[in-house]
């Protein structure tokens, strides 16, 4: 029996009207656990893949090809459980975005997330982000929508931390009008802002909940009552694994690091975040 296309499965979940909770998937083990533990959806976390697969923090250091390869592995393990996949900035201009969408769809993902940061991007809960213009991102979004065959296209804005909440809401409404299936404002900074976004955006909404990030962690019932469609938890399993590994290595005689992985910034510090920042500051982000 042929199983339905990944995008169709995710659309069916969204049509049901209940909040879709998508834990982070970053390696084969996490994908198996998401499937075996009854989750309706998984989230391929770019930061998690950068860390677990390549030993680098979430600063746009992983390529489209590397991410698509990981997406194929996770989608195969998950089977009928749809996978939402982080595609960062699309890895270039509109033609690069088109190629990225095709590669991700071949990998078997259900939805592809694009963001309006300038390249190289950085984790949405880190400071000093830069944006492309609204029109530039709409062009990328148009290229994605033109070539996609099955997947949902998710449009993320990082404007909250750069231009403020009102501008961020304006951007996601523009992206929804341009055809994005799901939108999300990255890193709202209070419960009031979470509610304000839900009140002023009519398109299906995604929220990103990160331990130690800028957004308060709220439960599924609260978010569903506000009208959110998807809640991703990219860092929850990843940080738990890292903390458990620190404990295990300490029991073997290792020296505990000065920083901990109890929140996302400390986790990236374990991967050399400050060293990468130093390179960027010395030679320029662009």
Q: Could you characterize the architecture of this molecule?
A:
- The protein is of the alpha/beta class and 286 residues long.
- The chain has a single domain (6-211, 222-235), classed as TIM Barrel, CATH 3.20.20.60.
- The chain is built from 13 helices and 8 strands.
- The radius of gyration is 18 Å and the shape is globular.
For the largest sheet, list the strands in their spatial order: 6-5-4-3-2-1-8-7
Into which percent range does the helicity of residues fall?
40-55%
| Uncertain residue segments | none
Q: Work out the count of structural domains.
A: 1
> What percent of residues are in strands?
5-15%
How is this fold's topology laid out?
Blueprint: H1 6-15, E1 20-25, H2 28-36, E2 42-44, H3 46-54, H4 64-78, E3 83-86, H5 94-107, E4 111-115, H6 134-147, E5 152-157, H7 160-163, H8 165-177, E6 182-185, H9 191-200, E7 206-208, H10 220-226, E8 230-233, H11 236-251, H12 264-270, H13 273-283
Parallel strand pairs: 1-2, 1-8, 2-3, 3-4, 4-5, 5-6, 7-8
Keywords: Lyase
Protein name: 2-methylisocitrate lyase-like PEP mutase family enzyme
GO molecular function: oxo-acid-lyase activity
């Amino acid at each position: 029996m042929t199983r339905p296309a990944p995008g169709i499965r995710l659309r069916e979940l969204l049509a049901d009207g209940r909040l879709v909770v998508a834990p982070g998937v970053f390696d084969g083990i996490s994908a198996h656990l998401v499937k075996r533990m009854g989750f309706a959806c998984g989230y391929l976390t770019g930061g998690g893949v950068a860390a677990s697969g390549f030993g680098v923090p979430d600063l746009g250091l992983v390529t489209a090809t590397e991410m698509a390869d990981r997406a194929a592995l996770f989608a195969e393990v998950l089977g009928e459980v749809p996978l939402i996949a982080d595609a960062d900035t699309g890895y270039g201009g509109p033609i690069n975005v088109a190629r990225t969408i095709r590669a991700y769809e071949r990998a078997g993902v259900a939805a592809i997330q694009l963001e309006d940061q300038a390249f190289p991007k950085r984790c949405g809960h880190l400071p000093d982000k830069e944006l492309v213009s609204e029109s530039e991102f709409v062009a990328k979004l148009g290229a994605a929508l033109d070539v996609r065959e099955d997947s949902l296209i998710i449009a993320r804005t990082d404007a909250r931390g750069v231009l403020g909440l009102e501008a961020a809401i304006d951007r996601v409404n523009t992206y929804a009008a341009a055809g994005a299936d799901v939108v999300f404002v990255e890193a709202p900074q209070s419960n009031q802002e979470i509610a304000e976004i839900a009140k002023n955006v009519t398109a299906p909404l995604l929220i990103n909940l990160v331990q130690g990030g800028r957004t308060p962690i709220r439960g599924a019932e609260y978010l569903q009552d506000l009208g959110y469609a998807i809640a991703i938890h990219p860092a929850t399993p990843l940080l738990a694994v890292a903390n458990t590994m620190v404990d295990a290595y300490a029991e073997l005689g290792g020296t505990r690091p000065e920083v901990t992985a109890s929140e996302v910034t400390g986790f990236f510090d374990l991967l050399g975040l400050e060293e990468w920042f130093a390179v960027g500051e010395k030679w320029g982000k662009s």
